[in-house]
Amino acid sequence: MAASLIWLILGVLLVAAEVLSGDFVLVMLGVAALGAAGAAGLGAPVLISAVVFGVVSLGLVLGARPALKRRMELGTGHRSGIEALAGATAVVVSRVDAHGGTVRIGGEVWSARSLDRGVIEPGVEVTVVEISGATAVVLSGA
């Protein structure tokens, strides 16, 4: 029973320490220690618990950790807010030139100005190059 308690404490400490490192190594070792605690709790000798710890930690560090790291590095790939508007297609609502005008982007009307300083007439499709403040900077020829 004492061995399972030691493994349990070690596992909880390692998982908690992962919060500080963020590298997914300590959490893998912590889960392996919890597995060893389970084995010890079922009456396995200390040597078998240590083998369980070694096998589970090796499997997690070499198997699950790389997949988790890749997933975290990729992120969701979801752009939101004004980041999502760059590259979008808009339709000119009122004449757009270098000084102003309006466009419709996905159902919303935005103030706009032309990037190439040309005049763009209503009904023309344009590409949103960037959002500058509350103004869409657009380029004709979408």
From TrEMBL:
Membrane topology of the entry: Multi-pass membrane protein
Keyword annotations of the record: Membrane, Transmembrane, Transmembrane helix
Chief localisation class: membrane
InterPro entries: Membrane_assoc_protease (IPR052165), NA-bd_OB-fold (IPR012340), NfeD-like_C (IPR002810)
Transmembrane segments: 31-62
Compartment(s): Membrane
Name by which UniProt lists this protein: NfeD family protein
Organism: Saccharothrix lopnurensis
Lineage: Bacteria, Bacillati, Actinomycetota, Actinomycetes, Pseudonocardiales
